[in-house]
């Protein structure tokens, strides 16, 4: 355990960083032949979301697993740690020539931020809260690993985790950067001219850092003190129809997803999948949807971060409204004011969705509602449009009817209604 000065205990984030920093040091020492300091709390680490993130060690020179969370767990259960490799490459981070032209030349849109080199000397620019969220993912990722230090820094499980730790970074000035994806940038651009604008982080265009391009977004946690955060992935499915077609026509067996699957339920894969030790991405995503509340309630809780910085992801198997209610009451600590503020924001969102042209003609897949509150404010935001697609041929969606292959319905409003219903119950 690190030496902790008394005043550091008053600052949990700092204390947590110190503890984790010490663990990282001891882990590195062990790799170099020294002793291994096992966590003293006996808990797995809670991890949550944030695949597309940039390793802040790039910016600050520190190592991002220092900020991972030690898991105190919702209802005392341990969250699972998953590992694996993504075999399917993604093209995020480098705009195509057309998209770059559309968004403006990335490198000519420099934000007023520090360069990587400057930032290395300025660790105070880190965003401790966001970095907790971003560093607590359970999933594997095809992202480019920007950090040459990761092999040294991460343990076996963390080696796998590190493959997805490169997507987002934090900057000063009330903005966060997310690795560029053409689909997401186009959506955000559209959303800035839509009725949904007040429910989406403000989009400030693109910026280049090193060899990658990023989307500049309003930091939704800016100005909040010890915020409590919940990420709910919306919709009755989290896979695109394209993923289903690909699984049929050009199946790519993902061993990382197979591993994640058997960790939760060894009997879930078919005999063939067991033999191949792999599942297609569609199969994994569909399994996640049907074993959580996604398929039935139209949303699932991906993770919750409490005010002390602990991140909890033990909601994978939640399927009923009463379980969701329990989680939400825990998240809000039963505070009526907070619950009411969320409720009224969600009603406003529902109205805005009704009048949104963007919503009418987009298939919204894998997008989240981010619930954020502190002691005097609560709000809900729509985030993550990386898999949100415009519909062809002036087609429009209802968002409130079940999905059947080909209809492209996403069930977003089914999820929103479930959340609102839960609140009434
Ligand atoms: N504008 C923002 N301001 C503050 N925090 C944000 C913002 N956008 C995202 N986050 C945080 O980062 C997390 C991940 O964001 P997002 O879902 O957009 O990333 P992703 O890499 O696409 O993740 P996923 O693994 O869900 O596909 C969110 O759960 C949220 O906590
Ligand atoms: O639920 P988990 O266990 O965290 O699994 C991940 C989750 O379903 C993400 O939504 C998905 O990314 P997309 O939605 O962006 O496809 C990711 O795929 P990936 O590994 O291909 O990134 C999965 O690994």
Automatic annotation (TrEMBL):
Similarity field: Belongs to the inositol phosphokinase (IPK) family.
One of the protein's GO biological processes: inositol phosphate biosynthetic process
InterPro entries: IPK (IPR005522), IPK_sf (IPR038286)
Biased composition (Acidic residues): 111-121
Residue ranges, compositional bias (Basic and acidic residues): 1-21, 42-62, 80-93
Name used for this protein in its record: Kinase
Entries under PANTHER family matching the protein: INOSITOL POLYPHOSPHATE KINASE, KINASE
